[in-house]
Amino acid sequence: MPEAHGSTAASAGTATVAGTSLLDVQGLTSSYGPVRALDGVTLSAQAGRITAVLGANGAGKTTLLRTISGLVRPDAGKVVLDGEDITKAPVEAMVGKGMAHVPEGRGVIAELTVDENLRVGSLFRGKVPQSEFDRVYDLFPRIAERRDNHAHTLSGGERQMLVIGRALLAQPRILLLDEPSLGLAPRIVAQIFGLLRQLVDAEGLSVLLVEQNARSALSVADVGVVLNLGKVVVTDDARTLMADEGLRHAYLGF
Can you give the residue ranges of the ABC transporter domain (predicted)? Predict the structure, then answer.
């Protein structure tokens, strides 16, 4: 493991920014067969903030989100959402508890139109007022222009906007986003991350953002958590991490 330089190395594995914790991960350990993907991960995501989880491929970032949302069952540890232990909650219950997970890969339903894809995100809520769909279209004018198009005709950036919009229709308290910048042009990445910042600042949404694009993630995040080989290396204010040249070179690749 590379040695991190600078002041942040002393804070490895500890949250340094005060606030109201919405999501707490406590000693989380998860494995795929003999491979331990998470090894005692502890972190918090604060209400009304963006917490960015960073690290190289294989650091355990995606497994972390999949374990939090119930897609992977942990070997040990707990996941607590707003004081409730949800570690053993069924996957289908997570949305009702206020958590929306947008996995890597922009999973639209290709045969459905944009509008139909959005309505899938609200099915569990019953009848949803049209104003909520209009709000998503206001947030994402690009997909508003294509609401009657089939999802397979959308670009990568448009698909990412669609799956985020679909998740927002579930009215989550916390949004889990896995590599939303993957394969997108820098201009589209900036647009999507800027919108996340807007939702957090204006509406109090909480975001747990997993990203390999550390520079872009830290530019909008409040707190950064660096993973390496399934362990938390450091947790600190995003601006502090951005300024720590030694840590950036050792773990974040820029």
Answer: 23-254
